[in-house]
Write a structure and sequence with these properties.
Layout lengths: L5 H5 L2 H13 L8 E5 L5 H9 L4 E6 L2 H14 L2 H4 L2 E5 L11 E7 L8 H9 L2 E12 L5 H11 L4 H5 L10 H8 L3 E15 L4 H7 L4 H6 L2 H18 L8 E14 L1
Helix pairs in contact: 7-12
Bound molecules: S-adenosylmethionine (SAM).
Length: 265
């Protein structure tokens, strides 16, 4: 299993929060009795959901104990012990997790791209909702970006080639129209969109630092200690070529994301 480093992930907290709140803003529910944040990570969105629907009973589901321990602190900081009791954190695989009751809301920001076979996953998630319940999903769809090309090239040369080739996955996220077609028969209403965010990053090797928190984690985890430094250096060099730093010190990092908010029929 990929390990997650909550501090590395939090390094771009503002940039990562923007699509999460754009998704939350489109959820057409006045009340939520029971809901879940799938792949809740450090719990920032789970807390936002709990504030937005103050009577909701909520689950935060994640596979990473490191992320969940930060999520526990997030909940403890944001809510009184009595109020915090309506929020439960479950260590579980999204692919297997089942709620004890049908839900009003399934929210998932930047997590479902870690699971395969969306043609089966999305209808399964719709099946966990009450009629009128909402599935709200955001996933990165940045696989054609220079960052991914740079990573692919780095993987394909060097002593790590065979070891890392085994970890390559087919592109997990489909174009928006595929989710529209897949989910529309199960929905009374669906809102699908795609956005490119032009993140302004600064500092040394900012794009490497971004992908280090997410996309290249599985590869770094799989490398022996004596190859990790060379691999990181090779990634950095290619990413510097792919994303020039402007005279004002800003590196612009375009990032494409797909969203959908579906109301169950
Ligand atoms: C990129 S982080 C996003 C965290 C949070 N949703 C946010 O927007 O800040 C992805 C999270 O999904 C979790 N994750 C990935 N695959 C998972 C799976 N199969 N089951 C449960 N959690 C998973 C990871 O542990 C990680 O915390």
């Amino acid at each position: 299993m990929t390990t997650w480093d909550p501090r590395q992930y939090a390094a771009f907290a503002d940039e990562r929060a923007r699509p999460a709140s754009d998704l939350l803003a489109r959820i057409p529910l006045e009340t939520v009795t029971a809901g879940v944040d799938l792949g809740c990570g450090t719990g920032a969105q789970l807390a936002a959901i709990a504030r937005h629907w103050p009577a909701a009973r909520l689950w935060g589901v994640d596979l990473s104990e490191e992320m969940l321990s930060v999520a526990r602190e997030t909940v403890a900081r944001a809510f009184s012990p009595a109020d915090g009791q309506r929020i439960r954190l479950d260590r579980a695989d999204i692919g297997a997790w089942e709620p004890p009751e049908p839900l009003d809301l399934i929210y998932s920001n930047a997590a479902l791209h870690w699971l395969d076979d969306h043609a089966a996953l999305m209808p399964r998630l719709m099946g966990l909702l009450k009629p009128g319940g909402v599935l709200a999903v955001q996933m990165p769809r940045n696989y054609a970006a220079p960052a991914h090309k740079a990573l692919g090239e780095t993987l394909s040369i060097g002593p790590w080639r065979e070891r890392l080739a085994a970890l390559l996955r087919p592109e997990p996220v489909s174009p928006p129209e595929v989710y529209d077609e897949l989910i529309s028969p199960l929905a009374s209403r669906i809102d699908v969109w795609e956005t490119v965010y032009y993140h302004h990053l600064s500092g040394e090797d900012p794009v490497f630092n971004w992908v280090k928190g997410t996309a290249i984690r599985p590869f770094l985890d799989a490398l022996p200690d004596d190859q990790r430094g060379d691999f990181e250096a090779a990634c950095k060099a290619r990413l510097r070529d792919a994303y020039a730093t402007r005279a004002d010190g800003i590196t612009v990092f375009p990032f494409r994301r797909v969203f959908f908010v579906a109301v169950k029929r």
